[in-house]
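From the methods appendix. Each design record in this collection lists the tokenized structure first, followed by the designed amino acid sequence. Records were kept in a plain field format so they could be parsed without special tools. The example shown here is representative of the layout used throughout.

RECORD:
FOLD TOKENS (314 positions):
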């Protein structure tokens, strides 16, 4: 039996509320905001996809979930993760609570769910390219009038083909979004192995809060941003106006991938803060926990040294 999903602030089990947009912890009142799990998007690309197998692999929900396709194994063991946390605490002028976070009961190995999308896209665009030109203001032929910048516009159109292999969308709202984005920078999806329940032994498995069709909406937004950047590069000029980009998707597919992380929380200034150790690289990700006392001591020492140097010079 796997442990229930804990609150990211106090570690107490969170209530199960399928379709809710807000999960509220009964113990500390922390509110976690997400998208409605029961939402169904009217998207022809989504409705054309075949259904995936469902089952129960996390015990914090009674209903079957889409089964993971793959998971990235842990490369960082518990002892190494604890050491990395202690090393980070010394480097960051961290408060005492953070320096002992590796001893916290909340410290655990976790698998976080992510939707990974892929597609080929063909985008037709209509745009306008603007090139700057300069002229003199005032009477015709005046040599000393102020310079005025104008823009000459001309139409532009074309087609952009792109292949998107791994567009990753975090599927949980129970971990801070900024932390998830930071962790995503160096996960190696090429190291993923087929999902096997035996590999979950002793790990906390986070169920997904965002349904796959919501993940598709977010993935399309990221693809659209990449396409628009390429379109603007092709249009060129000093300014661009791109009112129309029409994108068609082919070969659309997705996977549910579990990614590894060591999670812990610690109390600081009236609330609990979360810290993570990347399960592959060992990189520590946290809201920088500066200790006011230690920073004050460091500032005083620096000011004293600077005063001595100035006095010696004088």
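DESIGN:
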């Amino acid at each position: 039996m796997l442990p229930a999903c804990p609150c990211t602030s106090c570690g107490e089990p969170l209530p199960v509320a399928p379709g809710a947009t807000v999960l509220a912890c009964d113990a500390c009142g922390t509110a976690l905001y997400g998208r409605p799990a029961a939402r169904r998007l009217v998207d022809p690309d989504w409705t054309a996809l075949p259904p995936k197998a469902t089952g129960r692999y996390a015990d914090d929900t009674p209903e079957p979930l889409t089964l993971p396709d793959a998971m990235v194994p842990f490369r960082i063991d518990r002892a190494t993760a604890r050491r990395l946390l202690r090393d980070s605490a010394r480097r960051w002028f961290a408060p005492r609570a953070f320096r002992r976070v590796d001893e916290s009961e909340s410290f655990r190995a976790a698998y976080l769910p992510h939707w990974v999308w892929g597609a080929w896209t063909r985008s037709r665009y209509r745009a306008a390219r603007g090139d700057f030109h300069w002229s003199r203001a005032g009477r015709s032929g005046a040599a000393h009038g102020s310079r005025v910048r104008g823009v000459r516009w001309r139409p532009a159109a074309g087609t952009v083909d792109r292949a998107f292999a791994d567009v990753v969308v975090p599927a949980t709202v129970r971990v801070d979004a900024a932390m998830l984005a930071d962790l995503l920078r160096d996960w190696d999806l090429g190291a993923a192995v087929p999902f096997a329940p035996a590999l979950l032994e002793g790990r906390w498995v986070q169920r997904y809060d965002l349904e796959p069709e919501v993940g598709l909406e977010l993935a399309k937004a990221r693809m659209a941003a990449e396409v628009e950047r390429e379109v603007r590069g092709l249009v060129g000029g000093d300014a661009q106006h791109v009112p129309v980009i029409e994108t068609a998707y082919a070969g659309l597919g997705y996977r549910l991938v579990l990614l590894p992380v060591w999670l812990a929380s610690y109390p600081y200034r009236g609330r609990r803060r979360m810290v993570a150790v990347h399960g592959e690289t060992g990189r520590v990700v946290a809201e920088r926990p500066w200790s006011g006392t230690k920073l004050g001591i460091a500032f005083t020492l620096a000011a004293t040294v600077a005063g001595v140097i100035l006095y010696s010079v004088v």
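APPENDIX NOTE: Residues 212-235 form the longest helix (24 residues).
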